[in-house]
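quick one, 347 residues, struct below
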Amino acid sequence: MTTDVLTQRDGKIARIRLNRPKAIHALNTAMCAEILAALEAWRIDLDVEAVLIDHAEGRGFCAGGDIRMLAESGAKDGAEARLFFHTEYRMNHRLFTYAKPVVAFMDGITMGGGVGLSQPAKFRVATENTRLAMPETGIGLFPDVGGGWYLSRLPGRTGQYLALTGHRLDGAECLALGLASHYLPSTALDEAKTRIAADPQQIGATLTDLATPAPEARILAHRDAIDRLFASDRLEDIFAALEADPGDWAQQQLVTLRTKSPQTMKVSLRLLEEGAMMPTFEDEMRQEYAVGAHVVQRHDFLEGVRAVIVDKDNAPRWDPPTPDGVTDHVIDQIFAPLPDGEAWTPA
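---
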């Protein structure tokens, strides 16, 4: 067992507490495996009525996954990276299909793997500290852990905007977009957890009772612009729309997109386009695993991690460097299904 995640029974509820504060609770393979095993045990335990997910200490809920390990593995045979994705996606799928109510407390940074942990939960609690994002295109990756499912189901073209830019949402914005079910002040979280443990049958009523009105959701002021400028599933069209708009907001988005990997921006657009039509979350996970297995060994991911995490020069040299250099053939290769013996399977 790892101490990076704490699993315990607390009366009629079970608790998962992320406990890797120096890494802002970023997930590694052992953590995902332990969470998956705990969920399986509690699934058949009649005394467990609900599951709570939070973090033990520190300034964030979960900053994502073990990116440095993924890059080191991708530079070799990719086996360790594929094992991580396979285990993490099984955990994501188990949460998505879990029969018992799950409550996720997204207090603080909630990115990548943290989104994958929280979004399957029936109750998703945001606070004034919440900063939720899928910033993967900045390191040559894509919004996985179900990103193709969740983002494609957001209002209008909001999901495409978030996937391409990696924009950080605050708690009020999460509530407005449906990524959070409740908005609570962080000072009320301990009481919420105590009351839920005492009466797991009243989770919704408890959270509603402790909720406070959320501030104005700033992203809503840009909804019309987002739907207009990010309307196309073709990356070149989005760049053209932004270039043709002289407004400050559009120009800010253009500057942001020019720092991202053209290859994985195209991957992200296709992922959301197909994710919107996926019949089941299992199908989504199978697709994302195949895409992840391919992307993790490609130049842009290794270069993105070098620039942002290893050398920290924040000057990645993407290849190809522009959207028009990324051919449909390359994207088709990335989305190619894996052979039956290598494909993702649920737990």
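The longest strand covers residues 5-10.
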